[in-house]
């Protein structure tokens, strides 16, 4: 397979996978709701596939709010302090000659990240969305239409001058 064929094959499979993921998410949500409504949390079909509706509690903490309370109550023993490098101050120290550039270069790790991105999905999504298409049509109409003249053309006066007036 040559490069052009590989690109086309990848694009076709990527678009099919993205479409399948959207469909899967839609059916997953419908199935969760239907199982809840039926009062069912576990089901195994005749092929042996098991469907489980699992409910979990996930906790998160508003650390900013809690830190303010801990400071207000002078509970500093509940607050951990973590040392981190201040990058701006470090760069200024290098610029001022206080820290040799070699030290920074030795500590700096550069990692190459290679990604493959397929664009065009946004355009395809927009073209297949009637709402977006209607917004584009209205925008094009507003760009072409001059409400001070009849029809789509410029007025005779506007056509007569060569510089804006």
Outline of the structure:
With 165 residues, the protein is mostly helical. It has 7 helices and 2 strands.
Itemize the secondary structure elements and their pairings.
Elements: H1 3-38, E1 42-44, E2 50-52, H2 63-72, H3 87-95, H4 101-107, H5 121-127, H6 130-144, H7 156-160
Antiparallel strand pairs: 1-2
Task: Please explain how this structure is put together.
The chain has 165 residues and is mainly alpha-helical. The protein has seven helices and two strands; from the N terminus they run αββαααααα. The protein has helices at 3-38, 63-72, 87-95, 101-107, 121-127, 130-144, 156-160, and strands at residues 42-44, 50-52. Strands 1-2 form a two-stranded antiparallel ribbon. The two termini are 61 Å apart. The mean pLDDT is 86.
Main sheet: which strands, in order across?
1-2
| Rg result | 31 Å
Please report the distance between the alpha carbons of the first and last residues.
Answer: 61 Å
Provide the β-strand percentage band: under 5%
Mean pLDDT: 86
Q: Bin the helical content.
A: 40-55%
Apparent shape? extended
Secondary-structure element series: HEEHHHHHH
Low-confidence stretches: none
Count the DSSP helices: 7
Main sheet: strands, sense, barrel: 2 strands, antiparallel
Coarse structural class = mainly alpha
For the secondary structure, the number of strands is 2
